[in-house]
Amino acid sequence: MAKYRVVNTRFWDDTYVAELNPNEKLAFLYLLTNALTTIGGVYEISLKRAAFDVGLPIRDLRATFEKFEADRKIVRKDEWIGIVNFVKHQVLNPKVRRGIEIEHAKAPHDLVRRLNLPPEFFAIAYRPLSDPNKNSKSDSKGLFSTGFSQSFSTGDQEKGESGPDPSRFKRFG
User: Fold this and answer.
1) ∠ CA(74), CA(75), CA(76), 5° rounding?
2) Cα radius of gyration (the chain)
3) pLDDT tens digits, residue range 1-15?
C-alpha cells in the first residue's frame, strides 16, 4: 500500500521554517516526508541513511538534527526520531488515531512521552448509549421487563395446560 504525505503550502510561511538555511529546510521537509515516516510521526532511521537520502554530509545532518532537537521540533532516542507536532496536524478520525497508537507502541516509550501530544489526542471518543429502556415495557411495580408477557406461549397452552410441563426438563444433581 502506498503512503502519501501531503505538505501544506503554509509550511513555507511558517516563521521557524522561514529562518532555516536551505540545508535545514531540506532536512526538516525530509523528516516529514521520507519513506520511513509513519502516521504517528515516529520512526527509526539511521543518520547514515538520512544523510544519503538528502545528500548532506553526516556531520552536517547531525548538527541540523541537534538544532531541531534543541528547538523542540523533534525528539530523538538512539536511531528513533519523533516529530513533535506531527500528530497535531493529522485528522484524528478513529482509523488514523488507531494507526498513531500502533506506531507509538513500536517506538521507545520515553520518546513518545516527550512528544507532548495534544490533549485532544487523549480525548475519549463519545458515543451516546442507546436508551436501555427503548423497547422495554414497564410492569405494574415500575420495574422493566423483557417485553414478554407473564403467560408466554410454549405450545403447552394449546393443550389446556398453564405452563411448561415440568417433566420435560432434565434434573441435574
Assistant:
1) 125
2) 30
3) 457 778 888 989 999
Cell numbers that stand for 48 in this block:
547514515
Report which of 70, 48, 78 is spatially closest to residue 61, judged by C-alpha positions.
48
Taking the CB of residue 171, how many other CB atoms lie within 10 A of it? 5
Domain ranges of the chain: 9-122
Tell me, what amino acid is at 2? Answer: A
Give the residue carrying C-alpha cell 501544506: 8
Model pTM score: 0.67
According to CATH, the topology of domain 9-122 is: Arc Repressor Mutant, subunit A (1.10.10)
Q: Is the pLDDT of residue 126 over 50?
A: no
What does the pLDDT read at residue 154? 44
**Confidence grade of residue 140 (pLDDT, cut at 50, 70, 90):** very low
Cβ atoms of 84 and 56 closer than 8 Å? no
CB 119, CB 89: distance < 8 Å: no
- Which grid cell sits at 34? 521520507
